[in-house]
Structure formats: structure tokens, C-alpha cells
Amino acid sequence: MINQIMVEDIHKNAVEHGWWEGNRTFGEIIALCHSEMSEALEEYRKGKKLSEIYFEKAGKPEGISVELADCIIRILDYFGYIKIDYKIYPVSIIEFKEINYDFAEFVTRTQLYISKAYELNSLSYLKGAVEYIFEYLTYFDIPIIEIINLKHAFNKTRSYKHGNKVI
User: Which end of the chain is more exposed for a tag (fewer CB within 10 A), N or C?
Assistant: First the structure.
């Protein structure tokens, strides 16, 4: 379950790693979410399976589902910054199972949620993006909470701003 404790811990880690120094704009968060979705698509283009997780140097987890978890982590970090109470519970998807989106279609629809969040300055669309990713992965029996926890644990070990990245 994604709960307020997880949201606060993710945001705390981002603060400790320098990501909230100065003014961070909503547009920056949106752009970074799009970046994570593009990274997920690149993993798919490489022929990786949705359930495949592999590890790069220094134990960094990689894979489609890890990049999708990164997108969720970025959104949850923002929710922690603006201090909204956010929870999502594991659900059994019934309606979603009747829809057969291919992966590129899923990425496009998720990015639409993210773009609409920016266009309309709407947290509802960011919440929708999280829930859409959650539903998609749940449909394929991908343990998204475990993957979020895996990536968040790795993020805690990373260097300050991951080697001085600008954003």
C-alpha cells in the first residue's frame, strides 16, 4: 500500500539528497515524470519484459517496472513536498482486464495524464497517473509496491544529486 508514511519517507530522502534546494517548479516535476516514462519505453524497445528486473553497477535496479516505479516515486515526492495526504491500496482490477492496451499505448495514455496535470495544474491527473500505472502493473501481476520499495531503498544509497545533476 502507498500511504502517507511512504510519501513522507520518499520526500525526506529527496530533500536529503539535495533535490529540493532552491525552487523546484511543478513543470520540472512533470518533465521528470515524462523522462521516467520514456526510460520505461526504452527498456521495452530493448526487448525487456515487464516483469524483468536487472541490476547495473552499484546495484542499481533497472527494467520497465523500475522506471514506472521511478515515475511514481517522483509524483509521491511531489505529494510529500506539498504535504497532501495520499493513499492507494492494492486493488483487483476488473474493468481494466477488459482493455488490452499494448505497452506503447499505456505509456502514451500515462503521459497524457501527466501532461494534463501540468496543463490544468491538477493534482487529480497526477493521482490518476499513479493509479493508472498501478492498475496496469497489477493486471500483469507485477508487485509494484515491492518495486517502489526496492528502488527507494537504492535511492537512499545514492550520492548527493546523483553526481551533481542539475534537476
Answer: N
